[in-house]
């Protein structure tokens, strides 16, 4: 699946026009379809309420779901407004994830 | 072409031409320097002249300026295995040549543990690049922001570096909120992945030591502490205790109570929307309630 298709699928799952941050295209274009599906499964679990969100200290009305691939190479952050819509999907390597985490106050 | 032990910036050299020609180099030698460091190919005769005149003069200049181009700096010698030190010096020389003019250092378990996963090579430059693996070497690129981090202070206590490591001002935000964030992530990992993320656990330990006693833990002791915690049956309870200790000892009462109340309130809001995770959240905020109780 190409990055554009992946993004489209994420938006279909969450039923919202989403922002994407990080090297999403590069990450998706370089991982196997199996790994792409694992990320989509995680997005579904965020939407379905199985995944556990954490509050964002720097944005009081936001919460975030964290994704870590089993090999620890890919990190994801899906943000959502409290009692409202999903806002943004960030996918990248740990180095950049760490900055995102600090920015959000996660 | 053989790699040099020194490097010059041709643009800068051209700028200061009047200062160095004829004081140090002849016009011909100067042109040779420009050609060599602009990446152009030298003829055999030019290569001989470069080695005979330019290189020798450069080595002498370095000596006068007390800049030993071969010098390496060893930190935390008492924890470094003797045979690894020799190897590390060899590798550092190799990578210093590869990453010309960059600050390169070797750190991590390779220096002090008989069994190690890979050899961490840190390359600090103006611009960051993606890390990569080269056989047993893990090349980690960082920009100069690393110098002002707590993590750098920790690794600089036990490493072999091609540059002397000076004092750098700590610019990284390390406080009760950053420690709570790391705690939240560890608990989330333990719940969802059933395992703690080593990098996050490492940062949690570094920050907790720093907040509690302003101590910078070196990578040898950090590794021992991380391994100790990961081998415990009650990782979660240990993490909670470390958090409580660090806050009670290292943070002012007023500030800690305020932060605890704020965090509890944000989780209470989440519990309204995610009732299915109430049990998890209540467990997570338990140490925050304990801090309030102890501080009151």
Structure, described:
Chain A is of the alpha+beta class. Chain A has one domain. In chain A, a hairpin with a 6-residue loop joins strand 3 and strand 4. In chain A, helix 1 runs parallel beside helix 3. Chain B has three domains: 55 residues, no CATH class; 89 residues, Beta Polymerase, domain 2; 120 residues, no CATH class. A six-stranded mixed β-sheet of chain B has the order 1-6-2-3-5-4, with helices on one face. The longest helix of chain B has 21 residues. Chain B is elongated. The termini of chain B are far apart. The model of chain B has no long low-confidence stretch (mean pLDDT 91). Classes of the chains: A alpha+beta (106), B alpha+beta (296).
Topology:
The complex is a heterodimer of chains A (106) and B (296).
Chain A: H1 3-14, E1 19-21, H2 24-30, H3 33-48, E2 54-55, E3 62-68, E4 75-81, E5 86-92, H4 94-104
Parallel strand pairs in A: 1-5
Antiparallel strand pairs in A: 2-3, 3-4, 4-5
Chain B: H1 10-15, H2 17-20, H3 27-37, H4 44-64, E1 73-75, H5 82-98, E2 103-107, E3 119-125, E4 132-134, E5 137-143, H6 150-155, E6 159-161, H7 176-192, H8 198-213, H9 219-230, H10 235-250, H11 253-273, H12 278-295
Parallel strand pairs in B: 3-5
Antiparallel strand pairs in B: 1-6, 2-3, 2-6, 4-5
Helix pairs in contact in B: 7-8, 7-10, 8-9, 8-10, 10-12, 11-12
Q: How many distinct helices of chain A?
A: 4
Counted up, domains of chain A total 1
Calculate the mean pLDDT score of chain B and round it: 91
What gross morphology of chain A would you assign?
Answer: globular
Q: Could you describe the largest sheet of chain A, including whether it forms a barrel? A: 5 strands, mixed
Helical segment count of chain B: 12
Cα radius of gyration of chain A in angstroms: 13 Å
Largest sheet of chain B: 6 strands, mixed
Approximately how much helix is present in the residues of chain B? 55-70%
Give the total of domains of chain B.
3
Mean pLDDT of chain A: 95
The N- to C-terminal Cα distance of chain A equals 30 Å
Q: What general outline of chain B do the C-alpha atoms trace?
A: elongated
Could you list the spans of chain B in which at least 5 consecutive residues all have pLDDT below 50? none
Biggest interface between chains:
A-B, 22 and 27 residues
Helix content of chain A: 40-55%
Q: Give the H and E element order of chain A.
A: HEHHEEEEH
Q: What structural category characterises the helix and strand content of chain B?
A: alpha+beta
Main sheet of chain B: which strands, in order across? 1-6-2-3-5-4
């Amino acid at each position: 699946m190409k990055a554009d298709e992946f993004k489209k699928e994420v938006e279909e799952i969450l039923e919202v026009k989403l922002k994407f941050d990080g090297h999403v295209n590069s990450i998706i274009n370089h991982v196997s379809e199996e790994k792409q599906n694992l990320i989509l499964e995680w997005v579904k679990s965020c939407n379905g309420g199985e995944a556990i969100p954490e509050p964002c200290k720097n944005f009081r009305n936001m919460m975030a779901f964290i994704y870590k691939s089993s090999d620890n190479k890919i990190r994801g952050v899906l943000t959502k407004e409290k009692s409202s819509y999903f806002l943004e999907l960030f996918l990248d390597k740990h180095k950049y994830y760490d900055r995102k985490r600090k920015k959000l106050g996660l | 072409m053989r790699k040099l032990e020194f490097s010059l910036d041709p643009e800068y050299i051209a700028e200061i031409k009047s200062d160095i020609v004829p004081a140090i180099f002849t016009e011909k030698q100067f042109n040779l320097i420009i050609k060599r460091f602009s990446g152009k190919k030298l003829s055999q005769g030019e290569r001989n002249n470069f080695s005979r005149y330019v290189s020798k003069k450069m080595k002498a200049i370095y000596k006068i300026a007390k800049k030993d181009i071969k010098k390496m700096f060893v930190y935390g010698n008492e924890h470094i295995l003797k045979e690894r030190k020799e190897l590390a010096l060899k590798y550092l020389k190799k990578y210093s040549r590869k990453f010309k003019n960059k600050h390169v250092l070797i750190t991590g378990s390779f220096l002090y543990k008989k069994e190690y996963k890979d050899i961490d090579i840190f390359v600090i430059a103006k611009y960051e690049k993606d890390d990569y693996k080269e056989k047993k070497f893990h090349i980690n690129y960082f920009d100069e922001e690393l110098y002002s981090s707590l993590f750098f202070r920790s690794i600089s206590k036990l490493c072999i570096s091609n540059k002397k490591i000076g004092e750098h001002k700590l610019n990284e935000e390390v406080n009760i909120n950053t420690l709570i964030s790391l705690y939240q992530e560890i608990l989330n990992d333990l719940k969802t992945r059933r395992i703690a993320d080593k990098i996050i656990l490492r940062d949690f330990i570094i920050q907790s030591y720093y907040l509690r006693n302003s101590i910078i833990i070196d990578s040898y002791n950090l590794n021992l502490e991380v391994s100790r915690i990961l081998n415990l049956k009650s990782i979660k309870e240990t993490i909670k205790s470390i958090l409580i200790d660090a806050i009670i000892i290292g943070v002012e009462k007023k500030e800690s109570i305020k932060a605890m109340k704020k965090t509890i309130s944000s989780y209470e809001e989440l519990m309204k929307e995610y009732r299915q995770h109430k049990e998890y959240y209540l467990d997570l905020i338990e140490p925050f309630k304990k801090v309030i109780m102890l501080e009151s």
